[in-house]
Amino acid sequence: MKYNQLGESDLHVSEICLGTMTFGNQNTIAEAHQQLDYAIAQGVNFIDAAEMYPVPPQESTQGLTETYIGEWLVRQERDKLIIATKIAGPGRNFKWLRDGKQPVDRKNIEQAVNDSLKRLQTDYIDLYQIHWPDRNVPRFGETIYDPNKERETVAIAEQLTVFADLIQAGKIRYVGLSNETPWGVSEFSHIAKQLSLPKVVSIQNAYNLINRLFDSALAETCWRENVGLLAYSPLGFGFLTGKYLNGVPAKSRLSLFQGFGGRYGKPNVEPAVAAYVEIARAHNLKPSALALAFVRSRWFVASTIIGATTLEQLSENLESVNVSLSPQILEEIDAVNTRYPSPAP
């Protein structure tokens, strides 16, 4: 396992991060702890959660993921682990979370942090992320910005000021973004420098073989601002394993949560996935290993977030760290991307 410095922080995160959004829904607390134990034994030191998890979000399970992690975390050497979690930003209509109002303001940030600390049973959070920007941006599967959707927002300076106070209080160490845009990364960075407030060190966005939107403007922005990508959904909701090419398997995420994978129902997803699976098999690789190794190979990726519902899946995903893609394979991947550019943005 390799470890990468995260932005301008002193955090050195494992190149694979354990994502936990299945804990509390598809995984019991015993299964969650088995995954955590196994991942740590393989060199993973980075665990990512969110206050809204597990997914799909609902009132009856909200917070269970952090609770499961907390029951495990109290038995670990805390200073050897990097724990990340997130505040749910506005726009998702979670009526059960803080009375359905989630502006990223002082009241909400402080309550969200304190609640997460309690569930996680820890004194501090290493990386605290804004799950969605507190402003009008395209949502999952959308690619067009619509100014007609503008609404009242919390100023970025105000958000960063609260985070500065929480860092001073020792409750969080660093700040990150999620589902952000080039403008957002630039503005957070600019205001932090201008007002001597905490600079964001990471961005957690979707990135995979069928969603490479990060390659252009966001890649440049993050290079210039020294912000590392935490790539989520590297297997494209499981599509890049090839398991959906012949229908929807029983007990798969797509069968359990129908309609949840809408961004993957677009016209060129299936032929693109089939082409990537063909490349993997031609080079005696598992399709999942090809997909994960590709994400890991990108210069802007600080850590690749993997999630699994079984230890077998987790083991297979972690073994991908031993796979390096040759220039020939990368050329073949780029050829498919030219034919089917980012079919699942």
UniProtKB/TrEMBL annotation:
Residues 15-337 form the NADP-dependent oxidoreductase domain. The keyword Oxidoreductase applies. InterPro entries: AKR_Detox_Biosynth, NAD(P)_OxRdtase_dom_sf, NADP_OxRdtase_dom. GO terms for molecular function: oxidoreductase activity. Keywords: NADP, Oxidoreductase. The keyword RNA-binding does not apply. Gene3D superfamilies: NADP-dependent oxidoreductase domain. Belongs to the aldo/keto reductase family. Aldo/keto reductase 2 subfamily. NCBIfam families: PRK10625.1. This is Protein tas. It comes from Aetokthonos hydrillicola Thurmond2011.
